[in-house]
Design goal:
- The chain is α/β, with parallel strands linked by helices and 469 residues long.
- The chain folds into two domains: 46-138, uronate isomerase, domain 2, chain A, CATH 1.10.2020; 150-464, TIM Barrel, CATH 3.20.20.140.
- The chain has helices at residues 14-24, 38-42, 50-54, 59-67, 81-92, 99-112, 123-134, 141-147, 164-171, 186-189, 196-207, 214-231, 250-261, 268-288, 305-310, 326-337, 355-363, 386-399, 419-437, 445-464, and strands at residues 29-31, 150-154, 178-180, 235-240, 292-297, 299-300, 319-320, 344-349, 374-376.
- Strands 4-5-8-9 form a four-stranded parallel sheet, with helices on one face. It has a three-stranded parallel sheet with strand order 1-2-3.
Length: 469
């Protein structure tokens, strides 16, 4: 029997062990998509206790605690911080088969040098040990980033954000990690939302562009893109519950914008027309600026209306959406590719039933001198576990170019989540090691090591073209 999470955790072969320990483990982290707060990085936030660092805002953990029957009072309510931590410890005991169990113990070991298994009976011991170490200045937001060897962080930012803290970070010569914004226009895409008109008025005020039609709306967004670009942004991101494609004339689009500014209800067709043509317009604008475009597809958000009304969004009440997206996605990418204005694009799906489709879809739109210009993105959210990562990388290997994959993203609000990159790299090395030792790929350690280093870090650096100096 192997020891629990020893140095060769998840590494089943000698080749896998060499690839991880000699190549993957030493590589820095290029975190091209996350939800860290740039203000917390700039102000170098410190934490009063382990609950504040570990449980605050972590809807992965909240979801598991609810499944364990924990009352909301101990999750997002007003319980004492130790009481919340103890309820989390009770939940950890039940997490067999869940990646949270591995991540929890990887984080305890990597950041706190704690090998004790977390459960209710050890909660107080771990609480005291970790809280004592949190008093060390190295356990600040910046200290955790530096400890994790992160060279780049791409945050997620609204177009109307003033990016004040990104500017301040760029002026701070004492912090070497590059932190840049990513352009995420979800609120503009949400034309059916009650708050849409108010958001457009805010966009008008910040750009000085009066928005009464579709062209003016795109002009205002491009103005914000220029602002983001000047601060170093080279990445956009879209949360798409589903993918639609509906043609429209400019006159139809102008009428749609006018209707919503008057707070009139749109038909489903009109909504789809707006979403389609805005994505096309934005994609062309990204291409002009040589930005990377990301589509995160298939999240059914805020499914629990009671908890949404009581607590709000991003609280652990989202799930996979199940809709056919192949045809509209193909038409959307093709529309951008027709005049060679499809930007570098990464396609993620929350539903693993889309994996084979996305991997083959990416292959339809390659070229232009960029290796794997359209990427089948990392196993995301509910899929960032052993089976999900194995499936995503093996499918990419089967029908695409795994060696050109841009690798793992953190997609997290926690400064401890960088352990997930180690998790990913161990799984990657194990896949390659098994292929080699099964005689499916030659044993050329130097070449295999280069592939591992590329997927772990180098491919992303090349693909996103961020100046790290």
């Amino acid at each position: 029997m192997k020891a629990f999470m020893d140095k060769d955790f998840l590494l089943q072969t000698g080749t896998a062990k060499r690839l991880f320990h000699d190549y993957a483990a030493k590589m820095p982290i290029f975190d091209y998509h996350c939800h860290l707060d740039p203000q917390e990085i700039y102000e170098n936030r410190t934490y009063k206790d382990l609950t504040e660092l570990w449980l605050e805002g972590d809807h992965y953990k909240w979801r598991a605690m609810r499944a364990n029957g924990i009352d909301e009072y101990y999750i997002t309510g007003n319980a004492d911080t130790y009481e919340k931590f103890e309820k989390w410890a009770e939940t950890v005991e039940r997490l067999i088969g869940n990646p949270l169990y591995h991540w929890t113990h990887m984080e305890l070991r990597q950041y706190f040098n704690v090998d004790t298994i977390l459960k209710k009976s050890t909660a107080k011991e771990i609480w005291d040990t970790c809280n004592e170490r949190l008093s060390n200045p190295n356990f600040s937001a910046r200290g955790l980033i530096e400890h994790s060897n992160v060279t780049f962080i791409g945050t997620t930012d609204d177009p109307v954000d003033d990016l004040r803290f990104h500017k301040l970070l760029q002026e701070d010569e004492d912090f070497s990690t590059i932190v840049l914004p990513s352009f995420r226009p979800d609120q503009v895409m949400g034309i059916q939302n009650e708050s849409w008109k108010d958001y457009i008025e805010n966009l008008e005020n910040i750009t000085g562009i009066k928005i009464t039609n579709f062209t003016q709306l795109v002009d205002a967004l491009e103005s914000r893109m220029d602002y983001f670009h000047d601060i170093g942004c080279r990445v956009s991101d879209h949360s798409l519950e589903t993918v639609v494609f509906e043609s429209a004339t400019l006159q139809e689009l102008d009428a749609i914008v006018k209707k919503r500014l008057n707070k009139e209800t749109l038909s489903l067709k009109e909504t789809y027309q707006f979403l389609t043509q805005l994505l096309v317009s934005l994609g062309k604008a990204y291409s002009k600026r040589d930005w990377v475009m990301q589509y995160h597809i298939g999240a059914l958000r805020s499914a629990n209306s009671r908890l949404f009304s009581e607590i709000g969004v991003n609280i652990g009440c989202d799930s996979m959406k199940d809709e056919s997206i192949a045809n509209p996605l193909s038409r959307l990418l093709d529309e951008l590719d027709k005049d060679q204005r499809l930007p570098k694009t990464i396609l993620y799906s929350l539903n693993p039933t889309d994996y084979d489709m996305l991997a083959t879809m990416a292959g339809n739109f390659q070229g232009g001198g960029t290796p794997s210009k359209v990427q089948f993105g990392s196993a995301w959210w509910f899929n960032d576990h052993i089976d999900g990562m194995n499936a995503q990388m093996k499918i990419l290997g089967n029908v695409g170019l795994l060696a050109r994959f841009v690798g793992m993203l953190t997609d997290s609000r926690s400064f401890l989540s960088y352990s997930r990159h180690e998790y990913f790299r161990r799984i990657l090395c194990n896949i390659l090691g098994n292929w080699v030792e099964n005689g499916e790929y030659p044993y050329d350690l130097e070449w295999l090591g280069e592939i591992v280093e590329d997927i772990s870090y180098n491919n992303a650096v090349q693909y996103f073209a961020i100046n790290l100096k």
